[in-house]
Amino acid sequence: MALVGLGATGCAIGTLLAAREDCVLVGAVDQRPDTIGRDLSEFLGLDRLGIAVTSDLGALPATDLAVVATTSDLDRVAQTVIPLLERSINVVSICEQLAYPWESHPQIAKQLDAVAREHGVTVVGTGANPGVLMDTLPMLMSVLTRQVNRVVIRRRTNMSRYGAILSKFGLGLEPTAFAAARNSGQVIGHVGFEQAIGALAAGLGWELDTIVVYDVEPSVVSDRRRQGAHTVIEPGAIAAVTHRARGLRSGDAVIDLEIVFGFFDAEDEVQPGDEYLIEGDDQLITLASNHGFESFLSTVAAAANVATAVVDAPAGLHSMGELPVLAMASKGARIRQAVHR
């Protein structure tokens, strides 16, 4: 395995992979000047690994898989992924737009698929959402009903473990600054609604009229200081935002998604939690979590757990729904069993 991108999420994925018996870290790439030349172990909290961080993708040694954890922008991520594929390296990326890019970025999707097939490797975009929580999970739940009519998902997720990614949500800004940043395109909210809705609709066999992504809105202004792993929310600053999206079919909102992203406090009216509703012909299927699926930990786990599934998958660009459930759920156990036989 090689790591490309040593931000908070990339390092957490690396730490998880380093603890597995079926994975060996062999290289790391990061573009920040203060990381270059340092031993990877410094960023993962491990004993010395003897792996010097480089800024050059071409300096990576031969490896089965690269985990790319850099940006949400697929145009930029493709510039990293394509050279890796051309070296016959399988790729897992947490770029949200890579989770299901066939409709949102058709030309890039076609190029990635072609290059991966040409070199006999696989590329998959994954994470908590998109990747699992708003696409693959409800797709799997839909197996329990004869015919799905509507999917409604409400998430309230803790963002206090994240670092640089928080800027796109406007968390920590005062309301006036938030409005200005949103109007200028600096605050965009969640990236990945289009991909999650596209993947879910494709899995359910639905052809949608359109996907509507609404503007992100402030939902909690903090009256106290809130400390995150990498960021502090001061009193008077925005501690939570709400973002919504819908997939319309024949004018009806057949996929209805809403997420509240925030630094939650025990005294807030809004608390972490997730609710799912699959409206079927024969029954309503519901799933609820009082604490919610923790986005940071879930993203880290998803990226690590698909690693061996991606290496074993057919060549090309694939979505999470196309990977075998057993291969992802086993967390490398199937490979360990094969090696020990």
Helical run tally: 11
Distance between the termini: 23 Å
The radius of gyration over CA amounts to 20 Å
Give the overall silhouette. Answer: globular
Q: Give me the secondary-structure category.
A: alpha/beta
Q: Which stretches are low in confidence, meaning pLDDT under 50 for 5 or more residues running?
A: 336-341
- For this structure, the CATH topology of the largest domain is Rossmann fold
- Give the strand tally: 15
| Secondary-structure element series | EHEHEHEHEHEHHEEEEEEEEHHEHH
CATH homologous superfamily (4th level) name of the largest domain = NAD(P)-binding Rossmann-like Domain
Portion of residues in beta strands equals 15-25%
InterPro entries: DAP_DH_C (IPR045760), NAD(P)-bd_dom_sf (IPR036291)
Organism: Prauserella endophytica
Pfam family, one: DAP_DH_C
Protein name: Dihydrodipicolinate reductase
Characterization of the model:
The chain has eleven helices and 15 strands. With 341 residues, the chain is an alpha/beta fold. The chain folds into two domains: 169 residues, Rossmann fold (3-Layer(aba) Sandwich); 157 residues, Dihydrodipicolinate Reductase, domain 2 (2-Layer Sandwich). Strands 6, 7, 8, 11, 12, 13 and 14 form a seven-stranded mixed β-sheet that branches. It has a six-stranded parallel β-sheet with strand order 2-1-3-4-5-15, sandwiched between helices. Strands 9-10 form a two-stranded antiparallel sheet. The radius of gyration is 20 Å and the shape is globular.
